[in-house]
Design goal:
Layout (H helix, E strand, L loop, with lengths): L2 E6 L2 E9 L5 E3 L4 H5 L19 E4 L4 E4 L2 E2 H7 L2 H10 L5 H13 L8 H5 L7 H15 L10 H27 L12 H10 L10 H13 L7 H10 L5 H12 L7 H15 L3 H9 L20 H16 L5 H14 L2 H5 L6 H12 L6 H22 L23 H6 L7
Antiparallel strand pairs: 1-2, 2-3, 4-5, 5-6
Helix pairs in contact: 2-9, 3-18, 4-7, 6-7, 6-11, 7-8, 7-18, 9-14, 9-17, 9-18, 10-11, 10-18, 11-18, 12-15, 12-17, 13-15, 14-17
The structure holds s-citryldethia Coenzyme A.
S-citryldethia Coenzyme A binds next to α17.
């Protein structure tokens, strides 16, 4: 194994140089502190690998994304979301019997415990669906108590995975019904995964929803494109929380909360809000670009930029094409899409964005598609969570399959006070400087 030599003062230490199957290289510092007393500092983990993983490969400079080696473009065009979920979790595309069993289990587990419906009564109709989703997913551990002890039983894991992937749709749809005051619509056993979700969202006792095949295909592709993305913020959260050996439901709940942030999965909602603001205020594209570049202006071009992609996000490319297809079929003069495409054109030709390698990411077009499907804006990040769930589960499983199993516990560099004494109140009152700076 190749090594590098770290020199510090009069000392030196040889550290192994690891290489991944796609040629990525890393310095293995697992023994650094033990051997030298030194740690590394890397705010935001921009240069730090947290694990070895065989699930998803991203080449950010060349806009490449593959799930278990299969290019996202092929999966988006040819696969279903449920077989992509199976691929991510178990490492291979299911054969016919595996597909049938997985599909049957998803169908059988699509309802949630009837008592859980009462939880929704505790939320105001205005509650953000991500707050409801994280609460209800965590509550699954109460109604389906398959907790993990030291031994990791795969049969328990398989059932928890299927329950989560199936029930997340039902919870999401019920949170929408709760927000609009309509009765819950139960899943049907004769509908495929995406069609069943659309049925629960948009059917009502007085009018069944007719699933449009193009809309079902668009949703299927949206979920596939969101299914995993290596060690992003929410996936790293699922791994870190799961490393304490808490159950899968609680780990996924933590991932949902991390995804909610506007810099992460919450960006798709912010993109639409940004486009609506531009439309209603009549802002010019030039004004938007200028505001996005102005450090003193809180306006940010949501849906642009990425920690890994320094080229066009391959998912955004596919979503843009899908947008154009659906617009030509349904929406002739959708103003927000026109604004989005003009913003993209301006951003791609502006020195500030070019210099910083800021390109449209997955969130730039996904919100426009969710709008066309009829999903309300505040549910866009819920849709991201439904898509990302198999990836979170796969990464959690991979961590549990890895030996040695280690709880995640980063170090720090302390920059606070050196030792000082307790100053009694009367002294603090008489001498504000008594505590030192
Ligand atoms: C997702 O990690 C993943 O894989 C995430 C994700 C997944 O599938 O899990 O791909 C999903 O989260 C996509 C990203 C969605 N977020 C947004 O669209 C929010 C807008 N984008 C940014 O906030 C930002 O680009 C991040 C958060 C995505 C990336 O942040 P980084 O890598 O920490 O980069 P940075 O914030 O340090 O920005 C570098 C420079 C800065 O300017 P300078 O200080 O060098 O002058 O680029 C500027 C930033 O101000 N910049 C932007 C910008 N994004 C970065 N300026 C204007 N508009 C933007 N959108």
């Amino acid at each position: 194994m190749e090594k590098i030599t770290l020199k510090y003062g009069d000392n030196s230490l040889e550290l192994p140089l690891l290489e991944g199957t796609q040629g990525e290289r890393a310095i293995d510092i697992s023994n650094l502190r033990y051997s030298t007393g030194l740690i590394t500092l890397d705010v935001g983990y921009q240069n730090t690998g947290s694990c070895l993983s065989s699930i998803t490969y991203i080449d950010g400079d060349n806009g490449i994304l593959r799930y278990r080696g299969i290019p996202i473009e092929e999966l988006a065009e040819k696969a279903t979301f449920t077989e992509t979920a199976f691929l991510l979790i178990y490492g291979h595309l299911p054969n016919e019997s595996e597909r049938a069993v997985f599909s049957q289990r998803l169908t059988e587990n699509s309802m949630i415990h009837e008592e859980m419906l009462r939880f929704f009564d505790g939320f105001p109709p205005s509650a953000h669906p991500m707050a409801m989703l994280s609460t209800m997913v965590n509550a699954l551990s109460v109604y389906y108590p398959s907790f993990f002890t030291e031994s990791f039983e795969s049969v328990t894991f398989d059932m928890m995975a299927v329950r989560l992937i199936s029930k997340i749709r039902t919870i999401a749809a019920y949170s929408y019904k709760h927000s609009i005051g309509e009765p819950y619509v139960y899943p049907k056993h004769d509908l495929r995964y995406c069609a069943n979700f659309l049925h629960m969202m948009f059917s009502s006792p007085v009018k069944p929803y007719q699933v449009d095949p193009d809309i079902e295909r668009a949703l299927n592709m949206l979920l596939i494109l969101h299914a995993d993305h290596e060690q992003n913020c929410s996936t790293s959260t699922v791994r870190l929380v799961g490393s304490s050996r808490v159950n899968l439901y609680a780990s996924i709940c933590a991932g949902i909360c991390a995804l909610w942030g506007p810099l992460h999965g919450g960006a798709n909602q912010r993109v639409i809000e940004m486009l609506e603001e531009i439309h209603t205020r009549g802002l010019s594209i030039e004004q938007c670009i200028a505001m996005a570049k102005d450090r003193n202006n809180p306006f940010r071009l949501y849906g642009f930029g990425h920690r890994i992609y320094k080229n066009y996000d391959p998912r955004a490319k596919i979503l843009k094409r899908m947008c154009e297809t659906l617009i030509s079929k349904y929406w002739y003069d959708e103003p927000l899409t026109k604004i989005a495409m003009e913003l993209e054109r301006a951003g791609l030709n502006d020195e500030y964005f070019i210099e910083r390698k800021l390109y449209p990411n997955v969130d730039f077009y996904s919100g426009l598609l969710y709008r066309m499907i009829g999903i309300p804006t505040d549910m866009f990040t819920v849709m991201f969570a439904i898509g990302r769930l198999p990836g979170w589960i796969a990464q959690w499983k991979e961590m549990h399959d890895t030996r040695p199993f280690k709880i995640g516990r980063p170090r720090q560099i302390y920059t606070g006070h050196t030792i000082r004494r307790y100053v009694p109140m009367e002294e603090r009152q008489s001498d504000p400087e008594a505590q030192g700076d």
